[in-house]
Amino acid sequence: MINRVNWKIIQAYLLYRREVDQLSNSSMRLEETLLRHLLEWMEEKPFEKAPGIRPTLPEYMLTIRLDGKEETLSFSYIKKTIRAAYRFFGWVIKHRIGYRDITQSWLDTLKPSRMPIEYKEHEAVTLDEIRAIAKAPVFTIRDKRIRAAAVLWFLSGIRVGAFVTLPIMAVDLDNLKIKQWPRLGVRTKFKKHATTDILNIPELLDVVREWDKEVRAALPDKGLWFAPYSPETGKIDNKITRAGEYRYQRPAKDLKVWLQRVGLPYHSPHKFRHGFAVIALKNAKDIQALKAVSQTLMHSNLSITDGVYGILSQIDVSDKMAEIGQKITSANNNKH
Q1: What's the pLDDT tens digit per position in 107-152?
Q2: Each residue of 254-311: pLDDT tens digit?
């Protein structure tokens, strides 16, 4: 049973996050989900009793799920939940009275418990996979749209939330640029503003150019590049000019249906961004090239890019270690 007063305080905090911290709708939904774990952990006890509750929040997070599955929550998700709780209690200390037991020293104990982390191969769409997607048959406008979308994700590394809100005017294939500008209506992460680049791989660009030509013939510059279509007519719908709140979900659904129909394996849209990052980083030969990749991914600095995408696959690790072994052997032989 959730404490109703606690619930009201959470609602006040979420309102603060929306109005003062200006969180996006997707960030608000995630924050609300994460804080639900906090409410469940507290049960009927008021928030001021939090320091004395056992098991502690980090211990509790190792034992529960909200979706009915049996396996433990991922370390990454547990970490996000505890960080959300830390932010919330920090807000409580500043904006509420009667919480003397919630001290900074207690807040510092809100850390994820140690847990074994199962290694997972870094999933990313490969160049061979995107070539197969580019060559796969299309039967409808919907198919053609999602094929072009998938190829552009791979060539640009764009996030799907920004992609579905791109106006036609933001896509410049002649100069291989994408204007990820919030003032054009593009919903970028943290409302960042950047003009990013598109990889020049002609065989893939042909697919993107084909769709680009078709959508420009049907819609004005302010129309959406991921153009809405009418199920009734099977054609691009020029009556819809703005992306709806849940538009970001449509590409994944369309991609799954189309790939299943053409017999290709499904990857989520974000794995195409991973694919861009992996192939770009592998072919970056100097620090300037690495910085260019980082800026195209719209990361604040190179360390973020390296931390997220710099992990080599097991095959890459084996190849690199073999190279090192050969160099050591060669150097040793040259001495004798």
Answers
A1: 999 988 765 544 445 689 999 999 999 999 999 999 999 999 999 9
A2: 999 999 999 999 999 999 999 999 899 888 888 888 899 999 999 888 877 776 666 5
- Kindly state the helix (H) or strand (E) to which residue 264 belongs, with its residue range: none
Name the H helices within 189-313.
Answer: 202-218, 250-262, 269-282, 287-296, 302-309
Lookup result for tokens 């007519």: 233
**What is the C-alpha separation between 244 and 251, in angstroms, rounded?**
13
Specify the 3-state DSSP secondary structure of 25.
helix
**123 Cβ contact list (under 8 Å, min separation 6):** 267, 271, 274
Distance (Å, rounded) from C-alpha 260 to C-alpha 46?
50
CA distance 276 to 54: 45
Peptide bond preceding 58 in cis form (omega within 30 of 0) = no
Strands 177-180 and 171-172: antiparallel
Q: Which residues contact 59 (CB under 8 A, 6 or more apart)?
A: 113
Domain boundaries, the chain: 4-107, 127-280
Taking a C-beta distance cutoff of 8 angstroms, is the pair 230, 240 a contact? Answer: no
Q: Name which of 284, 271, 294, 36 is nearest 160 in CA terms.
A: 271
CB atoms within 10 A of CB 236: 19
Provide the CATH topology of domain 127-280: hpI Integrase; Chain A (1.10.443)
Chain centroid to CA 260: how far?
A: 23
CA distance 247 to 46: 38
Task: Tell me the angle at which helices 127-135 and 141-156 cross, rounded to the nearest 10 degrees.
Answer: 160
Q: What is the pTM of this model?
A: 0.68
Residue 82: predicted pLDDT: 93
Q: pLDDT tens for residues 93-106?
A: 999 988 989 999 99
